[in-house]
Amino acid sequence: MMLSGFFRLGVWQNFLRAWRSGYTGNLEGEGFTLGGVYVIGAGRQGVLLEHREKEFGDKVSLPSVLEAAEKIKPQAS
């Protein structure tokens, strides 16, 4: 996303939301890497949830993470 990411309206909305809620960050590190969240089940269950950031500050839904985590079945020993 590099420099073009800073010109997206959603990025600035996410920045303002984080700033208003008190998050400041340390401004160290790469800064251009988008993240993601995976919930992976035991054994052959595979990926139960996949969320990839499409723009800076794109957050995963906490209820969807909890729902996916509840679907994890213990692996038989």
What does this structure look like?
The protein has helices at residues 9-20, 62-70, and strands spanning 36-40, 47-52. With 77 residues, the chain is of the alpha+beta class. The protein has one domain (2-71). A two-stranded antiparallel sheet has the order 1-2. A hairpin with a 6-residue loop joins β1 and β2. The longest helix is centred in the N-terminal third of the chain and has 12 residues, at 9-20. It is elongated, with a radius of gyration of 16 Å. It starts with 8 loop residues before the first helix and ends in a 7-residue tail after the last helix.
Per-chain topology:
Elements: H1 9-20, E1 36-40, E2 47-52, H2 62-70
Antiparallel strand pairs: 1-2
Count the DSSP helices.
Answer: 2
Strand order of the largest sheet: 1-2
Number of strand segments: 2
Mean pLDDT: 82
Model regions low in confidence, pLDDT < 50 over at least 5 residues: none
Shape category = elongated
Please give the alpha-carbon distance between the first and last residues: 44 Å
Percent in helix? 25-40%
Largest beta-sheet details: 2 strands, antiparallel
Q: How many distinct folded domains?
A: 1
Element-level helix/strand string: HEEH
User: Approximately how much beta-strand content do the residues carry?
Assistant: 5-15%
CA-based gyration radius: 16 Å
Structural class per helix/strand content?
alpha+beta
Protein name: Peroxiredoxin-like 2A
Organism: Leptocoma aspasia
GO molecular function: antioxidant activity
GO cellular component, one term: cytoplasm
